[in-house]
Design a protein that fits this description.
InterPro entries: AAA+_ATPase, ABC_SmlMolc_Importer, ABC_transporter-like_ATP-bd, ABC_transporter-like_CS, Mo/tungstate-bd_C_term_dom, P-loop_NTPase, PotA_ATP-bd, Transp-assoc_OB_typ2. Residues 13-241 form the ABC transporter domain. By secondary structure, this protein is α+β, with helices and mostly antiparallel strands. The chain has helices at residues 2-9, 51-59, 101-111, 118-127, 143-155, 173-190, 201-207, 225-230, 235-240; strands spanning 13-22, 25-35, 40-44, 66-71, 74-75, 86-89, 161-165, 193-198, 210-215, 218-223, 245-254, 257-262, 265-270, 280-285, 291-294, 322-333, 337-343, 349-355, 368-373, 379-382. The model is unreliable at 1-9 and 299-310 (pLDDT under 50). The protein binds adenosine-5'-triphosphate.
Length: 390
């Protein structure tokens, strides 16, 4: 019907100017965000940034000091938790130990007085790939399986929004990675809004279609994982999502480019990749976008001898690349890639990742190199006189 369609279009979860204070401490600071219906949305940030408090206000476990929370056309700000079409999956599963898996999943239906639950429970167990586990006790399942029961138990209530509070925090790394893929598959299959809270950037990037990075009770930046990684808007976001080299520079417009002076060196980055308004800036570049080249006038430092091939350091810096000379201070072989630290003349150590594609050995510490990158791989942020070195 028309009403149903209008409802679907307006199923977004809206957090409007929400503030939460505990005594003198502001945990959530005038937060406004719309979480589109059907999206997998992650609130990502360090411990204490206010993400759990935000989630608890959406669940109704905490009342905002100011502001409103809307689900579609309904103001849910003052609704009791059980009156909200919202369910939460916690890190500690909270399964009933004395009930078997079937009854754990059936719980929400039974409480509502629904009699014929078998088909729905079997459906849910199938969705989370636990068909046939119905008569086991929670203690007879692995952590990952228990987490999937918790998910089934929440989903069977057909909430409009599912809240996930560090749901995979108790699992080991390998299982966590499997469950990330699994959660994403289930979200796509059921099409519900998932609001996921985590401090784990890899977890957020693997699962979410939109990430809001929180810091000090506010959202620093919101976007797709790729947008946040490729074009962070602040140094906080640049550092929180993966590793990033940040170099202090002065900037001047130069046609389609921003001309940069980095400790006397002339660099350029496309103007489209700069969000800086002032002249005092940070130049950011991810470790895997930096390349190492043999220093000019020195032989390629290969194990086989001067000038032979077989070194990971290729001679010559491409024309137009942004470059700085340095010396390798640390080499760490990490299988698929090698991580280098390269000290540049002003004392900063740049992190460089080189893919280990061939059989050539890594560049030894002490080797003189040139570090360079294509300007299109960098980005420029306002430094705003914060005076902190990268
Ligand atoms: P974590 O990842 O550690 O859970 P978080 O980002 O989820 O961190 P919150 O739990 O939302 O952070 O807490 C935000 C701030 O509010 C913290 O400084 C915390 O100490 C404070 N806080 C949270 N709950 C309360 C409370 N009930 N009473 C007092 N202060 C609180």
């Amino acid at each position: 019907s028309r009403q149903e369609r209008a409802g679907r279009l307006e199923g977004d979860l809206q957090i409007r100017d929400v503030t939460k204070t505990f005594g003198a401490h502001t945990a959530v600071d005038d937060l406004t965000v719309t979480i589109p219906e059907g999206s997998f949305f992650a609130l990502l940030g360090p411990s204490g940034c206010g993400k759990t408090t935000t989630l608890r206000m959406v669940a109704g476990l905490e009342e905002p000091t100011a502001g409103e929370i809307w689900l579609g056309r309904q103001d849910v700000t003052r609704l009791k938790p059980y009156r909200r079409p919202i369910n939460t999956v916690f890190q500690n599963y909270a399964l009933f130990p004395h009930l078997d898996i079937f009854e754990n999943v059936a719980f929400g239906l039974r409480r509502r007085g629904i009699k014929n639950v078998r088909a729905q429970v079997e459906d849910m167990l199938g969705l989370v790939e636990l068909a046939g586990y119905g008569d086991r006790r929670p203690s007879e399942l692995s952590g990952g399986q228990q987490q999937r029961v918790a998910l089934a138990r929440a989903l069977i209530n057909q909430p409009k929004v599912l809240l996930l509070d560090e749901p995979l925090g108790a699992l080991d790394l390998k299982l966590r990675r499997q469950m990330q893929i699994e959660l994403k598959r289930i979200q796509t299959e059921v099409g519900l809004t998932f609001l996921h809270v985590t401090h784990d950037q890899e977890e957020a990037m693997t699962m979410a279609d939109t990430i809001a990075v929180m810091n000090n009770g506010r959202i620093e930046q919101m976007g797709s994982p790729a947008e946040l990684y490729d074009r962070p808007a602040t140094t906080f976001v640049a550092n929180f999502l993966g590793q990033c080299n940040l170099l202090r520079a002065t900037a001047a417009p130069a046609g389609d480019d921003v001309a940069l002076t980095v400790e006397g060196r002339r660099w350029a980055v496309p103007a489209a990749r700069s969000s800086a308004a002032g002249t005092d800036v940070w130049v950011g570049v991810r470790p895997e976008k930096l390349r190492l080249t043999a220093a000019a006038g020195t032989a390629a430092p290969a194990a086989g001898g001067a000038g032979t091939t077989g070194s990971a350091v290729e001679p010559g810096v491409p024309a137009g690349a942004n470059a700085v000379e340095g010396v390798v201070t640390d080499t760490s072989y990490v299988g698929v890639s090698t991580q280098y630290l390269v000290r540049v003349p002003w004392g900063q150590e740049l992190v460089v990742f080189e893919q280990n594609a061939g059989v050539e050995g890594p560049v030894e510490p002490g080797t003189d190199v040139v570090v360079h990158f294509d300007g299109g791989h960098g980005f420029v942020l306002d430094a705003g006189g914060d005076g902190v070195r990268g």
